[in-house]
Write a structure and sequence with these properties.
- By secondary structure, this protein is an alpha/beta fold.
- The chain has a six-stranded mixed beta sheet with strand order 7-6-8-13-14-15, with helices on both faces. It has a six-stranded parallel beta sheet with strand order 16-18-19-20-17-21, with helices on both faces.
- A hairpin with a 5-residue loop joins strand 11 and strand 12.
- The longest helix is centred in the C-terminal third of the chain and has 22 residues.
- The chain starts with a strand and ends with a helix.
């Protein structure tokens, strides 16, 4: 399958630029300026034309509309019927707008079509719309599926058209499956008041018929939701995880585009109404709604945004059952009707679902007849059951609707699957399942995906051109390196690239590197035995392989694995130590930043997702505590989970209050407590002298920016050594901040509380002596009689950071030093 991607960049409401962003054809795509038909003034006219199956002059009340339609041979000269070739005429208008005659972009399209046809392959033409351009220019509203080059409809030949909306963030990349689980949601809700007629059961029977052969062959499992309510859908998604989770959701029911009152839930088939006709409340912006059933079988209008949120969160799990999420939503609504302002009912719904990370949506862009929808559904699932791509299945479904009629162009395929152009759902020879040994993800970890960092890591891995290269994710403990590494391993693009296997090895305190090597060997051979690097020589295949080493601690451990992995292997490691790979020839360092306050709040709210009301101030207070020392995040989440799983679960406010109190009132004398274990772990790589240096810093408050120059005084060390040791403390999660450009550090308030709580007289005397040393340094150097002598003339001889620091603290420390001197 060949790809021709055309990026449509809006200039204003009438003009856009067409850019060939991907193509097998050679040549410069350039930036081709284009203009919409009749400079965009006939968007509504075109939509109404392709919406209606038969012409009615009542639908086109503006004489200028009819004049234009007659001039373009869309209606007959008598103006009482559509022209026999009106769809081809519209297709040519759209083709000329997208591919101006003689333009570079038209020449590249011709080359791409010729290349694909010569190889007997289909060509996927992917129209890529910028997310903000969808609303401003309405480019996505046009029926591009009708593209006609003057000789033929492109979609009736080798071209398969899909749409891609470039929302911000990493596009979803889900692995293909061997068996496809389909969940059919058939809503029989109707409303005479809204003009929604009772639907027949033809389509669901057609779906069953289309999937029958694939079911018998074990490629598809089709299940119908017992009740077509949102609650039952939510319950089903919650209870069916892992291998039982649905990959496809097919909604068979009505859809409307309009405005829903948030107060009384009254739906209005309008787009510009200000107030609710029922309760007079202010109405929100119009959008697409799917007509589910309520508990009584009456219509329940569910926005695509609400459905998208449900589907996005249904892929998350706190337990051991992992679901990859819904990969396809099919929206099929017969007699759905058209919105007053001309927006397509399911066009907006499809875009909303794509925005919520659903990788693919098949929707009816315009109203469709029952018989046509039935034919499409049956052939679509018959084709899908033969493991064809979505682009091919949609194309074959359109053909079944009748290429000579005016129904075939109504199904639209939206894809947001950057590494899967045609939308291949099934495992194929070109997309094998890897030997995959990676732990499951927890729900809150998936919920905060940190897309920018994921994209950076994926790019680094996929761009590697040397074997045995190390990508190192470095940060202090508690910053989320392990979670990011798991997320990377679950990305479909990574699984596709590393077709030789992905292997996860965790280096724990009680699992030395030799035992970890034994585990890797068992992954490759299913043989458990002690091994050396030479045992691996003939065990690797020639396919790219990724070995992930979590929490690797020193260069000897890393070297052991570098000598063991195959020539086609790369290593992704997580580490807290920068010296882990100092002897490694090929490595790329990626520093991982801590979760920001907003992300921490999201993580803390996730286990409490069933609660509707949160005390945001208290959650922020807890997030502030955790931001101060990220290693406590797991401790806080464990405490929250303990409360959530109680038979009588308290409110979220009570839970958060308890966790805050527990962190603030930590029993520092309990050496077996989790927090003391964390401190012990942080001290693991420090010498006794380095611990003493660290303890000396606690004469200062945690809210201060302590300059390197001041630290050099109390440590009596050169500045280069101070910088190196401060970095080591930061790597060990013992500092809140380490800023190399400003040459300052910041202490951790909880650790300060811990060390100031120490009752050992020797330790207290130690801090008194450090304070005295700090004060006497400035006394002797500047011959001071009082702190004011220094503070009055700071600008004359001290750097900015040191001046600011001394202004805040020197008087206090002077008085303290004099007090203990007396």
């Amino acid at each position: 399958m060949e790809l021709f991607e055309l990026y449509l960049s809006p200039i204003d409401e009438t003009r856009f630029t067409a850019i060939v962003s991907q193509s097998t054809a050679s040549g410069d795509g350039g930036d081709t300026p284009s203009v919409l038909p009749d400079e965009g003034h006939r968007r509504i006219t075109l939509i109404k034309t392709v919406e209606f199956s038969q012409f009615s002059v009542d639908k086109f009340q503006d004489d200028t509309e009819l004049d234009w339609m007659a001039a373009e041979n869309i209606i007959t000269t008598s103006r009482n019927a559509f022209h026999p070739d009106y769809l081809a005429q519209i297709g040519q208008l759209l083709y000329k707008a997208l591919f101006p005659p003689g333009s570079p972009v038209e020449k590249l399209l011709g080359q791409a079509i010729a290349s694909a046809e010569s190889q007997g392959k289909p060509l996927v033409v992917r129209l890529k719309f910028p997310a903000d351009g969808v609303q401003h220019s309405r480019l996505a509203d046009y029926p591009w599926e009708l593209l006609h080059d003057g000789h033929r409809f492109l979609c009736h030949h080798s071209v398969k058209l899909s749409r891609y909306i470039a929302y911000k963030g990493v596009a979803p990349k889900l692995p293909p499956v061997e068996k496809l689980n389909i969940l059919l949601v058939s809503s029989e809700a109707f409303s005479k008041q809204m003009g929604l007629k009772r639907l027949s059961r033809q389509e669901r029977e057609a779906i069953r018929q289309g999937a029958k052969k694939a079911e018998e062959e074990g490629h598809i499992s089709l299940t119908e939701l017992e009740f077509a309510t949102l609650k039952h859908l939510r319950d089903y998604l919650t209870e069916h995880k892992g291998e039982d989770s649905p990959h496809v959701i097919h909604f068979d029911g009505h859809g409307v585009f309009g405005q829903k009152c948030q107060q009384c839930s009254t739906i209005h088939k309008t787009t510009k109404r200000q107030q609710c006709r029922n309760c007079q409340a202010q109405l929100s912006s119009p959008q697409g709604y799917l007509v589910f059933e309520d508990e009584d079988g009456d219509p329940d209008y569910i926005s695509a945004k609400e459905l998208g949120t449900l589907l996005q969160q249904s892929a998350l799990s706190d337990g051991s059952s992992q679901t990859q999420g819904v990969v396809l939503v099919v929206l099929s609504a017969c007699q759905s009707g058209m919105a007053i302002a001309g927006e397509s009912v399911f066009n907006g719904a499809a875009q909303n679902l794509i925005a919520h990370r659903v990788p693919a949506v098949v929707a009816m862009q315009y109203s469709v007849r029952v018989d046509s929808a039935t034919k499409f559904a049956e052939q679509f699932y018959r084709s899908l059951g033969q493991k064809n791509s979505l682009a091919m299945a949609v194309s074959q479904g359109r053909s079944a609707m009748g290429v000579d009629g005016n129904q075939w162009y109504r199904p639209v395929l939206y894809l947001r699957w950057q590494d899967n152009e045609g939308g291949q759902l099934f495992v194929s020879e070109s997309f094998p399942i890897t030997k995959f040994h990676v732990p499951k993800l927890s729900g809150s970890s998936v919920f905060v995906r940190r897309d920018e960092e994921i994209e950076k890591i994926i790019k680094a891995l996929l761009e590697l051109d040397q074997s045995k290269t190390v990508i190192a994710l470095w940060s202090p403990r508690g910053y989320g390196k392990t979670t990011l590494a798991k997320l990377i391993a679950w990305e479909a693009s990574i699984q596709q690239h590393y077709s030789g296997g992905i292997y996860w090895i965790e280096i724990k305190n009680d699992l030395d590197a030799k035992k970890a090597l034994k585990k890797l060997y068992s992954y490759l051979t299913n043989i458990e035995k002690d091994v050396e690097p030479e045992h691996f020589l003939d065990k690797w295949n020639q396919k790219p392989t990724l070995v992930i080493l979590d929490n690797i601690e020193d260069e000897e451990e890393l070297d052991l694995f570098l000598r063991s992995v195959g020539e086609s292997s790369q290593l992704l490691i997580t580490t807290e130590r920068l010296d882990t790979f100092k002897k490694c020839n090929n490595f790329k360092l990626i520093q991982i930043n801590p979760l920001n306050l907003e992300e921490l709040i999201t993580v803390l709210k996730y286990p409490l997702k069933k609660e509707k009301n949160f005390n945001d101030l208290r959650i922020k207070e807890l997030a502030d505590l955790l931001y101060d020392w990220p290693v406590l995040l797991n401790l806080a989440l464990e405490k929250i989970q303990q409360f959530v799983h109680l038979p009588d679960c308290p409110t979220s406010e009570v839970i958060i209050d308890n966790v805050i109190e527990e962190i603030r009132e930590i029993n520092w004398s309990d050496h077996k407590s989790p927090i003391n274990q964390n401190i012990k772990q942080s001290f693991k790589y420090l010498t006794e002298k380095e611990k003493e240096y660290f303890h000396s810093l606690f004469i200062f408050s945690a809210d201060l920016n302590i300059p390197f120059s001041v630290i050099a005084i109390i440590w009596d060390l050169p500045s280069s050594t101070v910088k190196h040791l401060c970095l080591k403390l930061y790597q060990s999660s013992l500092l809140r901040e380490f800023n190399i450009s400003r040459k300052i550090i910041q202490l951790n308030s909880l650790l300060q509380k811990y060390f100031r709580s120490v009752s050992d007289p020797k330790f207290k005397q130690f801090l008194i002596n450090v304070n005295k040393k700090f004060v006497e340094y400035y006394e002797k150097k500047y011959e001071l009689n009082s702190p004011d002598d220094l503070l009055d003339d700071l600008e004359d001889y001290l750097p900015l950071e040191e001046r600011n620091f001394l202004r805040r603290v020197y008087r206090y420390h002077w008085k303290k030093a004099k007090k203990y001197k007396l």
